[in-house]
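# nightly structure sweep
# worker-07 picked up a monomer target from the shared queue
# config: single-sequence mode, recycle default, output format = structure tokens
# input follows
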Amino acid sequence: MESKAVRRLKRKLTVEMLWIYIAKALMDKEPLKGYDIVKILKNDMGIKASTITIYSVVYRMAREGLLETVKSDGETLYKLSQRGREEFEKAVKFLESIIAILRS
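# output follows
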């Protein structure tokens, strides 16, 4: 059984950092519908966040320029922008530096 501390940590590193998982889901992929992003996060990555929460992060990422929108057959698709890739790489390096500190 997990402690409350570990559960809090998992929540902080998943639900509260959804943007990094969304960026990873879109990395090197064709543009995806919002629903496809939700399925990847939930089914492939095991993220336990509500669909509405995931959509709101997708919309925020698009407003902030981390995602680009593409219209196709009347639907809005999302792809990772160059800025989104750069921010993803910065975030991964930051997380790696934290792991290095914790392991030392």
